[in-house]
Amino acid sequence: MARFTERQWKAVRGTLPSGVDETLFRRELESIALDTSSPRKQEQLYLDSARLCADFIRRLPSMEEIKDKDQLREQLKRQQQSDRNRAKIYGHIAAQKQPRHFLKQCEILQLWEGACGRPRITTPQKKRDDPHTPPPTGDVISYFQAVAAPLGLRTPGAYQIKDIVRRYRRTFRPGSTLIASATQLSVVATSVKQGSTHIASSTELGADATSVKQGSANIAGSTVKAKRT
Q: Which whole-number Å values give the CA distances from 54 to 9, 15, 58, 78, 180, in the listed order?
């Protein structure tokens, strides 16, 4: 399923804290739903993008149509490092031989973390006179349950989500991310799209240039920021 119905989105929106850019958040969730690429394929995509950035940097001095070369060079270097880091993350997930839905679960949680903060879950203590164990609680649980079905996943219970968050934290080191930075990528993606034809014409990177041109829109759009009030 690629799009949320208004009823589904209302349920998701009710789990988000105030200040989140709901339009971008919804767009990202729908992008996650559409993405069926394997972790290994994603790893290769970002390795190719990093390699194309390196070629762009090397040929930048000869591109007379680009005026502010120093600023663009620094942006491309940051983009190249970001692509390498993300390739490592996807490679790590692929090496663990995790199923495709685990990657989607990670993307769902990282989207939350980028906009709403660390996914926090607490498990209340069981009362002595109560035979029932209270389930884990946390805003991220309600969020995950609201987005699961529209994104093609089974709706997990609170304990299952707690386990998913635990595996997610083991997989990702602090600071690692699958979500790109808009300030870093918006100008870079445009420049790569404009310059990829130039690179392809002077190297044997035609296929890579096409891939990056197609992927740069996704990379540039792959960001959600909370509008803090």
A: 40, 41, 6, 11, 18
Domain range spanning residue 153?
Answer: 6-120+134-221
List the single range of 94-108, 110-124, 141-155, 184-198 with lowest mean pLDDT: 184-198
E strands, the chain, in order: none
Q: How many folded domains does the chain comprise?
A: 1
The Cα-based distances of 3 to 31, 35, 56, 220 in angstroms read 9, 12, 36, 20
User: How many Å apart are CA 107 and CA 95, to the nearest integer?
Assistant: 17
| Within a domain: 227 | no
> pLDDT digits over 89-124, tens only?
888 888 888 777 888 999 899 899 888 888 899 988
Cα separation, 199 vs 145, whole angstroms = 45
pTM over 0.85: no
